[in-house]
Amino acid sequence: MKKYLKLSCVSMLLVVALFATMTACRNKAEGSEAGSSKPNIILFVADDHGIDALGSYGNPVIKTPNLDKLAAEGTRFTNAYCTSASCAASRSVILSGKYGHATGSYGHVHDYHHFSTFDDVKTLPVLLEENGYLTARIGKYHVAPEKVYHFQEELKANPRNTYEMAEKCAAVLKSDKPFFLYFCTDDPHREKSTDAGRWDAPNSFGNKPEGFPGVKTTIYNPKDVLVPSFLPDTKQSREEIAQYYQSISRIDQGFGKLMEMLKASGKDKNTIVFYISDNGMAFPGAKTTVYEPGLKLPCIIKDPFKSAKGNVNNAMISWVDLTPTILDMAGVDAGKTKFHGRSFNSIIDEQNPKGWDEINASHTFHEITMYYPMRVVRKGDYKLIWNIAYPLEYPFASDLWASSTWQQVYRDKAENYGKRKVQDYLHHPEFELFDLKNDPDETNNLATAKKYTSTLEAMKTSLKEFQKNTRDPWIIMWDHDSSFQGTGVNL
After folding, report:
1. Which of 10, 292, 362, 446 has the most CB atoms around it within 10 Å of its CB?
2. In angstroms, rounded to a whole number, what is the distance separating the alpha carbons of residues 178 and 42?
3. CA 422/CA 436 separation, integer angstroms
4. Whose CA is closest to 173, among 129, 138, 148?
5. What does pTM read for this prediction?
6. Alpha helix locations (H) across 174-333?
7. Would you say residue 298 has pLDDT above 50?
């Protein structure tokens, strides 16, 4: 009997030990599963890619099959806006969720400009790292200081060769930790060489973009391209647009390679993918302006945790909303950090969500010599632009000035530039009020029309409230406008 009792005790101990081992293994697996349940996030940012040049946005000429596939598998936003049509200023907003006028990111962060974000700003990569994410970046950075926009890993590749860039991300895609990959191309920015007006000039790596291994050069006939209405339809503009298309096709191939690698890693069903651009196409009338071609951009999101496929969302969203949205997707509590934007995560699957019909924009500098502060409010179909330094001539970015499209107009002393008179492009009034439903080209300024006086004043009030709420230093310039006095908004 004692023998049997002894064996029973041993058996029970073995069962308990086995149960404890199984429980530990299960807990470890559940812990691992819980860790992997956090979504991976890829934020793919092109440089100067307007809404005009994507198949999924209605362009039948350009070849972008991989990005079109992303749109077919996710949601395409039709009213997505950057807050400043300038590379560095826009990117600071993308990664901080705050307008540049409030963070010190007033313009380009080149060493000789020295614009940089205040040290106390808590950014997206820092917040994600604090919450267990591996953060990695590749390609264009163009924000400062590094300690504010810190990524754990910086991957190196030619930023014109998106195929090579994708290959360099292999280790990140296989990470055991949830990852945030910030993938930023130089395309389709004009080249930063002495021949700054072109896309195919030798770049800083000493070679031309054509002939990259793995990348097929897609040639477009200038006769076939679509000339946006704000540009002159000339030989020069068509030739430049053809080059622009070519650089976008390079992006598409690299994006396709990245998605192929993501699928091969087995992480595609747990990875949210964003495709956006920092600002509009690099032509006068788009980039560096706050007109629609400069601000209105592609935004395609594939979220495997949402049901919509091929969804078209008409909500007005802004790049200031990106950081809070991504943190929401990642389940990250930002603590005391307050953003100027708000998460649109909950409305991605919708088509016409309510309460998403207003955006703001804020531009101060591009390059240091390009001081031209503008503030914008868009409410429904109405849009107000306040040109704070309106007595100044509108400045040119160096690459836009060098463009053959502009140079032809300049040399010929042409009267018109697209649908605008050249003088109207160079000299803006203090206020520009547009009804975008009836005037999508923003050529009919309603600011001086008596019929729209009440609309103008209401929009001014909204603009002032936006500046107050975001601590805009340029709010003091309202003192110079006596017409604002008596509207009920206190300075």
Report:
1. 362
2. 11
3. 21
4. 138
5. 0.89
6. 235-265, 292-295, 322-330
7. yes
